[in-house]
Amino acid sequence: MAVDDELAGAGVTLVDPDGRRSSAASTNADSAAADALQYELGQGPCLSAWASGQPVAVEDVRADLRWPEWSTAVEPLGVRACVSVPLLTGGLAFGAIKVYWDKSMVITPRLVRLMELFAAQAAIFLVNVQARERVRTLSEQLKSALAQRDVIGTAKGITMSSQGLGEQAAMRHLMTKARDENRTLRDVAEEVIESMAPPAT
């Protein structure tokens, strides 16, 4: 039997540092549903591959007793066999890739090895994507923080000038106004700045 003769689908599961699981990719609805059942039930080959850091093969879900609830739940989806391989970085698993088949089959060491090689490349790609995303998020947070600081600093200067207050007193004035009106300091600062804008003609 060729590997893809009875291929039912494939997918990628990611697990964050808090243990939250999510499907980063699925080839079809049945694969996504098979994954979702693992997350819901807290059991299944994909989660076992992630937890153990080792490949997990299921040649026939009807005869495999390791995850009885999941095996029963996926039968209506047409899932009969699967291989799950962990995504590893630095020896730690942060997810798994898996392939589902709709017929029982013999899982050969060669097939598992091919999936491990693919998972190794996928792990490198995903780690790089996640690193870029963290850098982008940090950059956006820094930009937001700097913009907020500039807005508050401008409003503080306006308050110092308009009310004859010192720097600390002007800051306390803005903070007190924000607290009393249950608003953010940035909202109050933006309002102060807008109040100084010339009227539209």
Task: Give the helices and strands, then pairings.
Elements: E1 7-15, E2 21-26, H1 29-41, H2 45-52, E3 56-58, H3 68-74, E4 81-89, E5 92-101, H4 109-163, H5 167-180, H6 185-195
Antiparallel strand pairs: 1-2, 1-5, 3-4, 4-5
Helix pairs in contact: 1-3, 4-5, 4-6, 5-6
Report on this structure.
The protein is α+β, with helices and mostly antiparallel strands and about 200 residues long. It has 2 domains: about 5-105, Beta-Lactamase, CATH 3.30.450; about 110-195, Orthogonal Bundle (Arc Repressor Mutant, subunit A), CATH 1.10.10.10. About 55% of the residues lie in helices and about 20% in strands. Strands 2-1-5-4-3 form a 5-stranded antiparallel beta sheet, sandwiched between helices. Strand 4 and strand 5 form a beta hairpin.
State the domain count: 2
Radius of gyration: 27 Å
Proportion of helical residues? 40-55%
User: What is the tally of beta strands?
Assistant: 5
- Topology as H/E string? EEHHEHEEHHH
Shape: elongated
Query: Tell me about the biggest sheet?
Result: 5 strands, antiparallel
Q: Give the end-to-end Cα distance, rounded to a whole number of Å.
A: 78 Å
Q: Name the CATH class of the largest domain.
A: Alpha Beta
Strand order of the largest sheet: 2-1-5-4-3
Average of pLDDT? 84
Classify the fold: give the CATH topology of the largest domain.
Beta-Lactamase
Low-pLDDT parts are none
Given the helix and strand composition, which structural class is it? alpha+beta
Tally of contiguous helical segments: 6
* Fraction of residues in β-strands: 15-25%
CATH architecture of the largest domain: 2-Layer Sandwich
Task: Determine the CATH superfamily of the largest domain.
Answer: GAF domain
